[in-house]
Amino acid sequence: MKSPSYPNRSFWQILILFGVLQAFSTVPLNAQENTAPAIIPAPRDMTLFDKRFYWEDFLDVGISKSSSITKEWVLEKIKPYTGQGEHKRCSVMLMMIDSSSFEHPEAYSLNIQENLIMIKSGTDAGLRFGLTTLLQTIRMDSSANTHYSPRLDIQDFPRFPYRGMHLDVCRHFFPVSFIKRYIDYLAMYKFNTFHWHLTEDQGWRIEIKRYPKLTETGAWRSETLIGRAGREPARYDGIPYGGFYTQEEIREVVRYAAEQGITIVPEIELPGHALAALSAYPQFSCTGGPFEPATTWGVFDDVYCTKEETITFLRQVLDEVIDLFPGRYIHIGGDECPKTRWKACPNCQANIRANGLADEHELQSWFIKQIAAHLHSRDRRLIGWDEILEGGLAPDATVMSWRGVSGGMQAAAEGHEVIMTPGNPCYFDHYQSRRDDQPLAIGGYNPLEAVYAWDPIPANLDPTLHHFIRGGQGNVWTEYMPDEKHVEFMIFPRITALAETLWSDPKTKDFPHFLDRVDVHQKQWLQANIRYFPYYR
Ligand code: ACM
Ligand code: ZN
Looking at the CA of 201, which ligand is closest? Predict the structure, then answer.
């Protein structure tokens, strides 16, 4: 990476505007040695100096005019750390500079001096990352009862452009307040994508104006399974359960996420995992129903029929989704679609014949291609789980590889972009400890060290295909996570290991050093009332 060139004219305009650079003499208190701050994900390049920036002296924030980040937003972020010092003389500056100074669009530099903190980037994303790093440098000098940041220089940029976390709000529902907090957690660790899993067999969670029954009926199940699925006899709690987001709430979340630098990828599942939608509109199934939203977990035979009315319905649903979410990608699911009903359905069989398809796998591919074409017509692109490879990939489709990495490798070989999210170790619904005191989880074992050791680029992938691997994602399916605290427990601390895997230089990864930093972050989670799994060394 090139070092940033010396800034342009706006640098001086900013300095004159805020008038903060003065010839301060060194205060004896500042003559301290520093130890490295616990930054996660580890930055690319950090040089530490002695002397400090004391937050009690914090005066003001200056931001380049070309940035859309507001001073109020920055103040909100650093408010918890600012003191009541007498001599206010230290400032924080976010400076948007010529983006050609950085090789990477998300790159930033952070320079902490005694009286001035300078964050530079060519983008708002980079400025936010610089601020995130800055917040992680703040620590308490307990002898002086003050907060400070050590004097340092950081040059930083991410390894992968797609750094995602997913949340299933269907198996269990989470209010807007928690979704915003979840987005905060992502931003804290420099993720840039929130994959919002909005529709399922057990509940449809997004208001669609043209089809109100999707949420009037489809958002509510009569009761929920107690304990693990498959256990006999099954027991149910008898308590109606549900919830959904209004379009107004969705807009609010999208706006909030954008402010934190997070793009949302909404997921509308098709052709499978559709039972809640079919409960509301059984005419879009093969058999006509009736159906009810599922009360247990698993894969269900009743899926969308591939007939024209269903495709029209889905186009209209997706049109409203596209109007709500400005990101380029729409996730259409595509996983776990049994072919039982299609095999017995005259409409689906007629579709196979009319389109010269070999079988139901090609029918699924044909169906998804209809949807992909519609997304294209609205200038959006399709992401799907790796089953969308079966029967042939839609043009330009991005594949999310979850059944291991072979689907992702195949997609890359076919020239498609890939997000790696293999069950092992990216499924954060799996156990993170073998101790017998863990709450019920879906199964599997994905401890912190496995997430940390993971490389999203498979060792046996041809180097000429590496660039198709756009990044990775942690998935949080909530069958066995009934509330917010439980979600927190399952993602902390694994989210920090994934963050470092997706951002930092793999050559400098060091698990013991990472654990030392996690220790520091754990104390902060405790203070912030974030529940976490205490990792035992
Ligand atoms: C999945 O876990 N069914 C994508
Ligand atoms: Zn059918």
Answer: 1
